[in-house]
Design a protein that fits this description.
Length: 519
């Protein structure tokens, strides 16, 4: 472990221990069967047509249902939809389950689905989801329980849009303050940036939750979240403490820890227009010079797995047979020699080349970047780490003002392999898409175009495999790790079962065991 890592571990352990030792014990809520869930912030909107931040989307899952959901292999399955078909390349037909009720008591019908999608397409509403629905040209009710979606061109990945929550017919701006969905919990009240009170919806079509409701409690500081769960004033946290604090909490006899392989991917983005990084041998050298295993073990405390590409191993389209970049400083130095960057003084202090790395100013990112800085210095690459507020960093990334940067793709984006087209196709440079490094490969473009248009799953799988093999050689991204999801919860809870997307829907299955068995 590096000196920086040892210092941070001592600092984090001491800070958390002192805080926990000096905190006052607060009383749990009066209703033992209502769960208190920790959030890092309040949602930007309770209307799912607007709230795109991670917290908002997690809250939406509790209040609303979508037509489809993703299974553990990230394949689409019906939820509100009884079935969905693709009878023509530009037509999708969804048939709804019957007898599903909104919280206000009215039955879900095709009218609700049509209104949901038409409202998001309406420029007058101003939904930020409108851009993602660009291929959708029309949505109509064929009968009370059947909806037809018509596209402007063939687009095999369109069904991923059917993961969007369904709102009631006629719903307007009032939904931001008074949400009304078909989900397992109904809205009671919200205190902005403090708490959201949800109660179990007894008429939920999949059965009433095992608890009486949820109090979603906003606690921005992770040490304070740790204090609350340790002292019983909070019941459960999903992912929202650092690996260091997780490592301490899981040893508490009153607390249980649950993990599950996840999807989120942290990576180094590369500017392919840069004179140094435009040489793929330099990119490959950087990949060989980063010890992903050490980062996962010591910084992530095992809450990750080294990544070999952007798609997660859980994805049905993941290709494992690609060139690997194990930690190999000798190979990294040889690649730099081949690229024309020889070591100027053997074992001396002089470096082969210098690059800058832009990161957000979170504590973990600063620590990880210092480790990467040390590792790359060992192969002769000097890394100038520059830390920014997230908004500033992201603006620079969109403008192409970087050599290297670190960001993280989250589960919602990685759920469909079409993300490879949106990130690496030459037509997807900003603002059209996410090709922020300006990577261009006509062969890859053709493969991804065919995959986007194909209606045959085996053909798509073959094409995405070919694309991943090309990307593993060219390395327009240098992926670091794929996240492991975790939940920290009080010992007296049962029914905790995470999914790869770290969604909160599992909370409807969570109950508190009788008090005689609790600590």
């Amino acid at each position: 472990m590096t000196a920086a890592g040892r210092w941070w571990r001592r600092r984090a352990t001491l800070a958390c221990a002192v805080a926990l030792a000096t905190a006052c014990r607060a009383q749990p809520p009066a209703d033992r069967h209502r769960l208190v869930v920790g959030l890092t912030s309040g949602p930007t909107s309770l209307d799912p047509r607007f709230g795109l931040d991670d917290v908002a989307q997690k809250v939406h899952q509790l209040l609303y249902d979508s037509l489809l959901v993703l299974d553990d292999q990230l394949r689409l399955q019906g939820l509100l939809a009884e079935s969905y078909d693709n009878p023509l390349p530009t037509v999708y037909v969804v048939r709804l389950k019957r007898g599903i009720l909104f919280h206000d008591g009215h039955e879900l019908t095709a009218a609700d689905v049509v209104h949901t999608f038409r409202s998001m397409l309406d420029p007058g509403l101003g939904s930020p989801r409108r851009g993602g629905l660009r291929p959708l040209s029309a949505v109509d009710a064929l009968d009370r329980y059947t909806v037809q979606f018509r596209l402007s061109e063939p687009y095999t990945s369109f069904p991923i849009n059917l993961l969007l929550p369904i709102v009631p017919a006629g719903a307007g701006a009032e939904l931001r303050q008074a949400p009304n969905g078909t989900g397992p919990y109904r809205f009671v009240s919200e205190v902005s940036d403090d708490r959201i009170d949800l109660r179990a919806f007894d008429r939920y079509w999949q059965g009433a939750p095992r608890n009486t409701g949820l109090l979603l409690k906003v606690v921005p500081d992770e040490v304070m979240r740790a204090l609350e769960i340790r002292h019983g004033t909070m019941d459960i946290i999903v992912n929202d403490v650092s690996p260091d604090i997780y490592d301490q909490l899981r040893d508490d006899p009153d607390i249980q820890a649950t993990t599950r392989a996840g999807v989120d991917c942290q990576y180094l983005g590369v500017n392919l227009r840069d004179g140094v990084l435009g040489d793929r041998r330099v990119r490959q050298a950087i990949a060989h010079g980063i010890d992903r295993g050490a980062i996962v073990t010591y910084l992530r405390r095992g809450l990750a797995a080294p990544a070999s590409g952007l798609l997660p191993p859980l994805s049905w389209a993941f290709e494992p047979d690609v060139p690997a970049y194990d930690y190999d400083p000798g190979r990294a130095r040889a690649l730099l020699d081949e690229a024309g960057y020889p070591d100027p003084d053997g074992d001396g202090p002089a470096v082969r080349l210098a690059v800058s790395l832009k990161i957000s100013n979170s504590e973990f990112n600063r620590l990880q970047s210092s480790v990467i800085q040390e590792q790359l210095r060992a192969i002769g690459i000097a890394v100038d780490v520059r830390s920014y507020e997230f908004a500033t960093l992201f603006a620079d990334v969109l403008a192409g003002n970087f050599q290297l940067y670190t960001l993280q793709w989250t589960a919602a984006a990685l759920a469909d392999p079409d993300i490879l087209r949106r990130v690496f196709h030459s037509s997807q440079v900003p603002p059209a898409g996410f090709n922020r490094g300006h990577y261009r490969n006509p062969v890859l473009d053709g493969i991804l175009d065919r995959a986007a248009a194909s209606r045959d799953d085996q053909d798509r799988r073959r094409l995405y495999s070919a694309a991943q093999r090309i990307l593993a050689v060219d390395l327009p991204y240098i992926t670091i790790w794929t996240k492991t999801n975790f939940a920290i919860a009080r010992r007296d809870l049962t029914g905790i079962a995470l999914n790869p997307l770290a969604e909160l829907m599992f909370l409807r299955h969570v109950a508190r065991i009788p008090s005689s068995s609790s600590h």
